[in-house]
Design brief:
The complex is a heterodimer. In chain A, 29% of the residues lie in helices and 33% in strands. Chain A is built from two helices and four strands; from the N terminus they run βαβαββ. In chain A, strand 1, helix 1 and strand 2 form a beta-alpha-beta unit. Classes of the chains: A alpha+beta, B alpha/beta. The interface between A and B is medium-sized, with 16 and 17 residues.
Chain lengths: 83, 325
Amino acid sequence: MTNPQLSVADTLDTSGLLCPLPVYKAAMALKRLEAGEVLELICTDPGSLADIPALARQRGDILRGVEEREATQVFWIEKGPQP
Amino acid sequence: MTTHLTHLTTDRSVRRYDDIRDLVARPADPTPLVRLNRVTPATTELYLKLEWMSPFGSIKDRTAAYLLAGMAERGELEGKELVEATSGNTGIALAALAALMGIPLTVTIPDGVPEEKKVLLRMLGAEVWETPDDLCPVDHPKDGAIALARSLAASENGTRYAMVNQYENPDNVRAHFETTGPEIWNQTEGRVRTFVTGFGTCGTITGIGRYLKEQDPTIRVIGVEPQKGHRLPGLKSFQEAKEPSILDRDVIDDVIRVDDDDAYGFTRRLYREEGLMVGPSTGAVVAAAHRLDGGGLIVGISPDSGFKYTSFFGDILGDEGLPRI
């Protein structure tokens, strides 16, 4: 499950975890990245479809893509310039 | 000749204890009740119950002991780790007790809890997950730490963690109904007329309030609520947080709202005028009690001491107390 257009710096699989754990772990993973680097995030909690874009907006990151595959959602989040 | 080793046992009359857990307060060995003599007018009989004179430093020692005993009785601890959302004091008491039982503890803690508490938790071996209140951007109340603890408990099909759940666990109320409430009644020789405490998990106000009302339904029970966005760890404003299910509004006669300035102002006065080195939530309780007019003996809860808040106090003091050269 890769996005050929993006160079992914880190992948985080939160399969089986319920909100807000994927959000918490995604925020921690993004913290470790440099601005411009991309996190590939795999979720299975349907709430993530609303929560992850909201997290990106709140943090000033850029959601570069979302893909839904049956019960799994994959997000590609580019770390924005952090204050 | 046989040498017999004699073992000393716990003897509360000489304050000798076999195990640190024997020091957790109970009606036979209560936390102290101390009168304020300067902050209040001479006619006001206001006593503070110093819950920090307890082994792990706060009112949560007795709560944590009851919560864990209940879970152990129900077999909920077998093969499990513990997880709990806490602003620090419950976590510290749980971490100490869990360490003594050999059980790992993960604590989810809201933003804004002083560094001192987080470090103490880690010293006790707990894993600390700091959580912004608005962690889940969509669809969740402003209780990120509670939501995170719940999702940890539900993860791995619920096989790894047992959640202590102080906000919903009736043992929280029972701890105060069976210990703190009777202690206050005994220590005041049944003369308590008004009881004041802050809203947090609401185990204290519900448990003590219920006990005191059973002794005398005319005793007034007052809840202290901080402002929205307050800086009083342990207290909850229900303008921004969900009311815990263990809160019983039927035992509460009145709610007094206290802002940070008032709470920290009284905290400072308690240090300088009464020699009481309390945490800021005690200042909030005294600020509320100060607004009550007459009505006989008042008991307020002093949940913890100030040692875990020195960084907060430093912010408030600014350059006060430093030489002006």
